[in-house]
Design brief:
The longest helix has 12 residues. The protein is about 10% helix and about 40% strand. A hairpin with a 4-residue loop joins β2 and β3. It is globular, with a radius of gyration of 17 Å. The chain is mainly beta. The protein has 1 helix and 9 strands, in the order αβββββββββ.
């Protein structure tokens, strides 16, 4: 991103909203309402091809409490890494094959199945 796009994105994500707003730069569009933030990236994937997507969320969460992330597109090969200080964070799959989620080491989970739109993960915080 150039400085202008970075400033526009930063303002969009940090300022309170009274209406829907969006920023577009290259193949990335960020759209924010008072209730959610949506990221869209146009990527051409060759037939039988794969792409790697890295998604990072930094946010406050109630303790105890939970936070849900859902998929908007099919995905597989999912690794979840959490970096939490001061409380425990468990992850639960919102998927028919809940047993496909394995805690491989502290703060890291591997999901050995694919997910479809509206499936996802619940992050559960406890003291």
């Amino acid at each position: 991103f150039d400085q202008e796009a970075t400033a526009g994105l930063s303002g969009l994500l940090t300022n309170p909203l009274k209406q829907i707003a969006h920023v577009r730069k290259g193949n990335l569009t960020v759209r924010r309402s008072a209730q959610d933030t949506r990221f869209a990236v146009q990527v051409d994937i060759p037939a039988r091809g794969r792409i790697k997507v890295h998604f990072e969320v930094v946010r406050a969460i109630r303790v105890p409490g939970n936070f849900v992330l859902i998929a908007t597109a099919p995905a597989d090969g999912i690794t979840i890494i959490t970096n939490i200080d001061g409380f425990n964070l468990d992850v639960a799959a919102l998927h028919p094959d809940r047993e496909a989620l394995h805690n491989t080491q502290h703060g890291k989970w591997q999901f050995d199945a694919g997910i479809l739109p509206w499936q996802g993960f619940r992050f559960i915080s406890n003291a």
